[in-house]
Amino acid sequence: MNALHLEELNAGNVAAANTLSLKPGQDQFVAPVSHSIAEAYVNQESTWPRVAVDGDTVVGFLMGNFDEDAENELFRATILRMNVDGDHQRQGVGTFLVNALADEARSRGIDEITAVWEEGELGPGQFFRHLGFVEVGETEYGETIGKLTVQVHAQ
């Protein structure tokens, strides 16, 4: 794998992001990228859609959300959805995307990020726990809410 880099979702990479494939059985744990693209368009002020690119190949997608005025502090910096292409999983892409959101949170002075996921054998719960996310609750739909404290750099 070449050096990964992050790009804002744009006209040049949206089609590739929309065609990311998952491993069999994983599709039940995450909405299609097309849903996230529509949501990003509607909520342009708070959404943070990004892709991970390896060379010139889009290998992952992250739908983040930043709302510093959110009533619930857990949702000030959130990973709403994340898709890593099935052929590129377990190669650091997901960790790269989580770290990118954490870096953005730090730059905004936010000291924790939240992830929302659905539990299941093929779901992302183990991945998030491995990165240090701690379960702190559930959404009204039964999804797990986890948070990760990130160190804000002194200015």
β-strand percent reads 25-35%
Enumerate how many helices there are, as a single number. Answer: 4
Give me the CATH fold name: Aminopeptidase
What's the Cα radius of gyration?
15 Å
User: What gross morphology would you assign?
Assistant: globular
CATH superfamily: Gcn5-related N-acetyltransferase (GNAT)
Q: Estimate nothing, just give the exact number of structural domains.
A: 1
Uncertain parts: none
Largest sheet: 7 strands, mixed
Please report the first level of CATH classification, the CATH class.
Alpha Beta
Helical content stands at 10-25%
Which structural class do you get from the secondary structure elements? alpha+beta
Mean pLDDT: 84
Give the CATH architecture.
3-Layer(aba) Sandwich
How would you explain this protein's 3D organization?
The relative contact order is 0.17. With 155 residues, the chain is α+β, with helices and mostly antiparallel strands. A 7-stranded mixed beta sheet has the order 1-2-3-4-5-7-6. The model has no long low-confidence stretch (mean pLDDT 84). Helices cover 23% and strands 31% of the residues. The protein has helices spanning 14-18, 33-42, 93-107, 125-130; strands at 4-8, 47-54, 57-66, 77-84, 112-117, 134-138, 144-149. It is globular. The N and C termini lie far apart (34 Å). Strand 4, helix 3 (93-107) and strand 5 (112-117) form a beta-alpha-beta unit. The protein has a single domain, classed as Gcn5-related N-acetyltransferase (GNAT) (Aminopeptidase), CATH 3.40.630.30. InterPro entries: Acyl_CoA_acyltransferase, Bact_Acetyltransf, GNAT_dom. Keywords: Acyltransferase, Transferase. Residues 4-151 form the N-acetyltransferase domain. This is GNAT family N-acetyltransferase.
